Amino acid sequence: MNTGNGSAPSETTLKPGSGPAGGAAPPSDDTAKTRKRKPTTEEVSHGRFFLAKKEASGGSPALGQEFTQEGEAMVEAFRTGGTYYRIEEFKPVADFASGMPALKKDPVLKK
To answer: Residue 32 domain-assigned?
Structure first.
């Protein structure tokens, strides 16, 4: 408790939820400005989405109707009691930056 003479240490009271024991404090302005929303799967997706044909035989996938977004394919597969495929296409690229050649994959974006 502060007696006013400047020699005694001041006493600090924490309100519930304002410190480490009471929970996390709200983010500062600096933190809120630097955080970025993570892109959803569909925003970064370069895949194509197809319903699976039920009459497929021999273990080979047979592609049915194509959808532009995975969510649409998922809903339709659920509605019909079927399944769907997600197909992604990649192009192999040689990377010589580390001195050792390495193959990397680059997604092929749909047009």
So the answer is: no
